[in-house]
Amino acid sequence: MNSLRVSKVLNNNVIIANHPERGEVVVIGKGIGFNRKTGDSILLEAVEKMFILTNQQEQEQYKQLVPQVDEQLIEIIGEIILYISQKTQTELNEHIHIALTDHLAFAIKRAEQDIAFHNPFLFETKEIYPVEFELAEYAIRLIKERLGVDLGEDEIGFVALHINSAMTNRHISEVRGHAQLIADMVGIIETELRFTIHRNSLDYSRLLTHLRFAIERIRRGEQVSEVDKLEMLLKQEYPTLYSLAYKLTKVMEQRLKMPVYQAEVSYLTMHLHRVAPANLQ
């Protein structure tokens, strides 16, 4: 048996079906429910451009969500997710169907009521996740073209985090938390050194990239090589920056609830040296 059997049609783009190996599943795809009825058979080969939710909890959540969301939006999100999957050649976590649908439906409702949400770490998101940001731009552009609703750049940043969450199999709260942590650390740097970092500078971009990879290393428990001589030199030559770098690693340690290796302080000091004016070092 190499086919799905329709159990229930939820709308033109979503059906519940019996899978030959996985039992009851939710199938999402453009027009898959059109003119279908209970008992109809669909060849598995025909569902190449469709998504099958296999996790039971995800299925139940999606079933509850579908009746609350405009059918055209479900179709658009299906196209967006297919586009992301093809562009990145990545098997996305299936939770993106629920997370992105729920998020965008709410964002559209807010936009229609003229309620704006400011994204406090938009610039950081754009710098840290450029691929995801570009994919999110496509998503927001498609919604504007099809539905006539402009969700704006702030929303691009939020969608980019959902895309990264699906690509990396991390919960959105963790991804958002990391972006927020980086934005907060930039704020600490500017407050402590009493100057504003030029957001379009290459050094700022390098700093954000370093902070992102530092967080990733800490999260994985990955140790960077010790640099004793360099540490002594940096501590002596740039005491203010070294002290600030140490403070930032303690912030990371507290927020990530994981130990940070001492060598991270030295590497961070070097990046601070790049962005800080000479008179503040």
Automatic annotation (TrEMBL):
Xref: SUPFAM superfamilies: PTS-regulatory domain, PRD, SacY-like RNA-binding domain
GO biological processes: positive regulation of DNA-templated transcription
One protein family per Pfam: CAT_RBD
Alphabetical UniProt keywords: Repeat
Gene Ontology molecular function: any one: RNA binding
Repeat as UniProt keyword: yes
Domain PRD: 68-173, 174-281
Gene3D superfamilies, sorted: 1.20.58.1950, 1.20.890.100, CAT RNA-binding domain, PRD domain
Similarity field: Belongs to the transcriptional antiterminator BglG family. GlcT subfamily.
Protein name (record): PRD domain-containing protein
Source organism: Paenibacillus mellifer
